[in-house]
Amino acid sequence: MTCLIFFPKIRCCFFDHFVDKLLRWRQPSCLYDLKINTVMRSQFNFIKLAFLGFLLAFFIHAIPIGCNKDEEPPVEDPTTTLDLNKANKAAEDAEQAFASGDVSKIFPFMAPVALERSQLDLENADAEWLKQFAKDFNNRSVVGYGDEFIEYQFDWNGLPYTVDFAIQEDGSIKIIRL
């Protein structure tokens, strides 16, 4: 079949035989039938080329030309795993810090990455706002967790809100996204 790609004037015997069988089921009885057979044969050439095109595309995509395995070793499993009791205790402690309304009590429960993003907002926040946050955070549920993080979701001012905690280098669990 690939001979048609390189030598288009060579006819593919399989397709020609198929067309002949298709068109010979009845012999042309008049000039009109002969014309129909000729038109059908020319239209079948299009189908033949389309079929060969699909076949060529299949073979091109089936050959793994650029698929090489990575030379990097697979990632090893983390050595630390999340203790859910410890994570829930950290969330309760953070909730109590927010309930106090004092920003200085909240900062120890936040990781450095969270402090970079949220410190100014927390310093400018009203104490009542922080207390309302704590009340809403009390109705939290676990959305998901992995080996090193846990994500809580709760409704705050009528909208879903998430807070993420993660294990830090010292083993403590702190807020990484507020």
Question: Which key terms come to mind for this protein?
Answer:
four-stranded antiparallel beta sheet; Nuclear Transport Factor 2, Chain: A; 7 helices; alpha+beta; elongated; 178 residues; single chain
Describe this structure in words.
It is a single chain. The protein is of the alpha+beta class and 178 residues long. Helices cover 51% and strands 15% of the residues. A four-stranded antiparallel β-sheet has the order 1-2-3-4. β3 and β4 form a beta hairpin. α4 (84-100) packs antiparallel against α7. The radius of gyration is 36 Å and the shape is elongated.
Topology (elements, then pairings):
Elements: H1 3-6, H2 13-23, H3 31-62, H4 84-100, H5 103-106, H6 112-123, H7 127-137, E1 141-145, E2 149-156, E3 159-167, E4 173-177
Antiparallel strand pairs: 1-2, 2-3, 3-4
Helix pairs in contact: 4-7
